[in-house]
């Protein structure tokens, strides 16, 4: 089942009188349980695509179906509600509230949506164990390292059991070792929780955790690789690097 589907999706910006086509007629489908990485040179439209499919921006042309709903037929309030209940976001900067503990930051989406935290207690405990922060659940962001904060942000994205998690450069503000931990957690959330994930990254090592990599250039999809399940991570990494070299040549 498709969690996200776009048809001839386009986005045009105007910088003064200058027109910039960020995306030009992109067809893109993400099936339930997929772990997809979106890659491409700077300015290729990666983040624009992510923001559009997450309902954070509106397209110039084309259609987006999110969790079975055509966004073009929904009002702003309906899109907000659909996004809140079906999409978990992880960004490069953690966006945690400094006055809340790790546990409170994770459960914030439940409060915003009027849901009972008690009903999600078992999932909260499972997520805290998944990210390895059960013993630091009452620490505030200033008491956590950058990697720990990003792990809290990931658990926050997962707490509502969303149809899809969208991660925009989730390792971009982290060192290599910590970034690896985050990608391993995303991989585990896909494998162990059945979570559907789309990650935008410029880093081939981060993308190598995905089962499928979509390559953009100049606002268009130029390649879409689904890896053989038997491929090692080293084989996936080599394939990604080779493709990126072609794009940048």
Outline the fold blueprint.
Elements: E1 2-15, E2 18-31, E3 35-39, H1 46-53, E4 61-66, E5 69-70, H2 76-86, E6 87-90, H3 102-112, H4 121-130, H5 146-158, E7 164-168, H6 176-193, E8 197-200, H7 204-207, E9 212-217, E10 220-226, H8 233-248
Parallel strand pairs: 3-8, 3-9, 6-7, 7-8
Antiparallel strand pairs: 1-2, 1-4, 4-5, 9-10
The CATH homologous superfamily is called P-loop containing nucleotide triphosphate hydrolases
For the largest beta sheet, what order do the strands appear in spatially?
6-7-8-3-9-10
Strand content: 25-35%
**CATH level-two architecture:** 3-Layer(aba) Sandwich
How many domains make up the 3D coordinates? Answer: 1
Number of helices: 8
Main sheet?
6 strands, mixed
Calculate Rg over CA atoms: 18 Å
Cα-to-Cα separation, first versus last residue: 36 Å
Helix content: 25-40%
Give the H and E element order. Answer: EEEHEEHEHHHEHEHEEH
Instruction: State the low-pLDDT regions, or none.
Output: none
Outline type:
globular
Q: Tell me, what is the CATH class?
A: Alpha Beta
Describe the structure.
This protein has 249 residues and is an alpha/beta fold. The protein has one domain (33-58, 78-248): 3-Layer(aba) Sandwich (Rossmann fold), CATH 3.40.50.300. It has 8 helices and 10 strands. The strands form 2 sheets. The chain has a 6-stranded mixed sheet with strand order 6-7-8-3-9-10, with helices on both faces. Strand 1 and strand 2 (18-31) form a beta hairpin. The longest helix has 18 residues, at 176-193. It is globular, with a radius of gyration of 18 Å. The termini are far apart. The model has no long low-confidence stretch (mean pLDDT 92).
């Amino acid at each position: 089942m498709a969690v996200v589907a776009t048809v001839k999706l386009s986005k045009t910006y105007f910088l003064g009188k200058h027109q910039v086509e960020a995306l030009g007629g992109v067809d893109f489908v993400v099936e339930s349980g997929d772990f997809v990485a979106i890659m491409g040179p700077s300015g290729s439209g990666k983040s624009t695509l992510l923001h559009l499919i997450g309902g954070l921006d509106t397209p110039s042309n084309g259609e987006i179906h999110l969790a079975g709903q055509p966004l073009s037929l929904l009002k702003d309030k309906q899109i907000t509600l659909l996004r809140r209940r079906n999409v978990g976001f992880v960004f490069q900067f953690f966006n945690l509230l400094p006055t809340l503990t790790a546990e409170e930051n994770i459960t914030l989406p439940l409060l915003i949506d009027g849901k009972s935290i008690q009903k999600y207690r078992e999932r909260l405990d499972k997520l805290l164990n998944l990210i390895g922060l059960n013993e630091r659940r009452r620490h505030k962001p200033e008491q956590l390292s950058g990697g720990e904060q990003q792990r809290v942000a990931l658990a926050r994205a997962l707490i509502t059991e969303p149809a899809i998690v969208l991660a925009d450069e989730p390792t971009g503000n982290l060192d290599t070792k910590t970034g690896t931990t985050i990608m391993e957690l995303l991989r585990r959330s896909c494998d162990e929780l059945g979570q559907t994930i789309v990650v935008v990254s410029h880093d081939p090592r981060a993308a190598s955790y995905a089962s499928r990599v979509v390559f953009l250039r100049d606002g268009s999809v130029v390649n879409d690789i689904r890896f053989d399940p038997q491929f090692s991570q080293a084989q996936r990494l080599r394939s990604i690097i080779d493709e990126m070299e072609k794009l940048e040549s």
